[in-house]
Amino acid sequence: MNTLADIFAEDTIEAMARDLFPEDVAVGFAFPWGAPEGLLPGEAAGHGRPTEKRLAEFAAGRRAAHQAMERAGLPVRAVAHGPDRAPVWPRGLVGSISHTDTHCLAVVAEGARYAALGLDLEEDKDLPADLIEVVCTPAERGWLSVQSGDVRGRLARLIFSAKECAYKAQYAVTRQLIGFEAFEITPDLETGQFEATFTQDVLPFTRGACLNGQFRFDGGVIVTGMALPGEGAAR
To answer: For 128-148, what is each residue's pLDDT tens digit?
Structure first.
């Protein structure tokens, strides 16, 4: 459970996210509560009738994205949302947004350098036991079974976060909805890195293709991130 110190650990959580991405990927932060301020024209359009909490979270995500654009030295532009609720990034940009009840992060970069970014933010707490079979493949459950019992649920939450992160990155490329079973996560607890391996074809990705990401635990949260190189990236 987050302590008050964790909840207000803005610098810690920003630094965690910053550490997961190359230097030319900018990070923004906002608290997802209070009045839904800072929305640009076009960002709230088509939102229907959201709850007060949902609108506060949505606005925080856009404020974090705007801050990331500013930090990247880019003009601040609206981040709309599509019918699938995924962010629609301004032309020439890629990005990702994630939040918990207490924190919101966004990452932004130039699309000439990256094909997609993936970011996920989760509370650092056990994944409920009844979700482990839904989220984790047999191989992942096998890996969890040899981990210490007191961290097994927490590591299952890490697998969940890594799959959410990888899903966002692949969706920006494929625009395909896939389930938890479409990825197999291999975490390296010593280096803070993970591989997300496709277990099926999700074109242009083929079965066996790997997306590489990183993770951090601190400040009462788990953060996972990945940047998929674009055609213009340096080799």
So the answer is: 999 999 999 999 999 999 999
- The SS3 assignment for 70 reads helix
Q: Give the residue from 42, 22, 208, 220 showing the smallest Cα distance to 107.
A: 22
CA geometry: angle at 22 spanning 135 and 86, to 5°? 45
Question: What's the length of the chain?
Answer: 235
Q: Where are the chain's structural domains? A: 4-120, 123-216
Crossing angle between the packed helical segments 152-174 and 138-145, to the nearest 10 degrees: 150
Question: Coil, helix or strand for 83?
Answer: coil
Q: Which residues, 6 or more positions from 55, have their beta carbon under 8 angstroms from its beta carbon?
A: 36, 44, 47
Output the average pLDDT for the chain.
91
In this model, does residue 109 exceed pLDDT 80? yes
What is the pTM assigned to this prediction?
0.92
Name, in order, each residue with C-beta under 8 angstroms of 62's C-beta and a sequence gap of 6 or more: 38, 39, 40, 43, 78, 79
Please tell me the CATH code under which domain 4-120 is placed.
3.90.470.20
Amino acid of residue 8: F
List the structure tokens of 150.
């007191």
Tens digits of residue pLDDT in 20-55: 999 999 999 999 988 788 899 888 755 566 788 888
Q: What's the CA gap between 79 and 66, in Å, rounded?
A: 8
